[in-house]
Amino acid sequence: MRSEKVEERMRTPARSFKDLIVWQKAHELVLGVYRFSNGFPADERFGLTSQLRRAAVSVPANIAEGFRKRGPQDKARYMNIAQGSLEETHYYLILSQDLRYADSSALILQHEEVSKLLNAYSSAILNSNS
User: For 20-126, which CATH class?
Assistant: First the structure.
């Protein structure tokens, strides 16, 4: 029964960016990044903490902004910007781990999930007729 609901959701057109699974997962990543970076050293508040959070927030923000754009090329451009911000986030997570600020492995797994979903969503946009 659960898979029927998932299939039904996948067939129902999203009415809002909040209906997109890719946006939901990207938003969860942002929330995780905020919790993760709370423990960074105080002297990183305007450095790595700020950069990591800014990059992470940019992912769902660009998905949301691109949602209402008309035409597949315009929508895809915003998804491409989101992909760039997602990779920037990935780098900051690696750096945080290397600096021994915290274990970022769980967030890197979330990053990978969002990346796959974003790639699939971008492909679907480019292959659509809308």
Answer: mainly alpha
